[in-house]
Amino acid sequence: MKSARRRSRELALQGLYAWQLGGDAATDLAAQLAESQGFDKADAKYFARLLEGTIEEAAALERLVEPALDRKLKELSPVERGILLMAAFELKNAPEIPYKVVINEAIELAKSFGGTDGYKYVNGVLDKLGAQLRPDERRQRN
Fold first, then answer.
1. Rounded to an integer, what distance in angstroms lies between the CA atom of residue 103 and that of residue 123?
2. Which of the residues 55, 88, 91, 92 has an alpha carbon 20 to 30 A from that of 127?
3. Helix (H) or strand (E) holding 26
């Protein structure tokens, strides 16, 4: 059974995918997704925080992620790009969630929704980003 936070991340990823393709406002996307099947199993507050926060901070998050990439962010699939932006948002703005949990959740999303080996790429990028954004936490756990 999926946790409420996992479901929130899945829904937020769906919203980020739609946002990248259509440019809809975060509030409109959140309202649409709130009507989707299974939304009642999500943490609605965390979903809104992820979706709205990632979209609001997208430009800054892109600047954070880009140095860890081996290609331009726009060359990634919308799924992997959405996962990386959302995980970067969590690493930056949700210190209450351990960085290993953020990375693991991103990997699981990439396995479920991304390309065949997309999860490996997501893991490598987020490992670099975790070292940059949470160096003390990373050092304590290794």
1. 7
2. 55
3. helix 26-34
Contact 67, 28 (CB under 8 A): no
Which value, to the nearest 10 degrees, does the dihedral of the CA atoms of residues 129, 130, 135, 140 take?
Answer: -160
Residue 15: name the closest of 109, 104, 79 by CA: 79
Could you tell me the two tokens for 99? 């960085």
Q: Is the dihedral of CA 115, 120, 125, 129 positive or negative?
A: positive
Contacts of 56 (CB under 8 A, 6+ apart): 26
pLDDT in tens, 46-91: 999 999 999 999 999 999 999 999 999 999 999 999 999 999 999 9
Residues 6+ apart with CB under 8 A from 128: 68
Residue 3, Cβ neighbours under 10 Å: how many? 12
Q: Give the global pTM.
A: 0.94
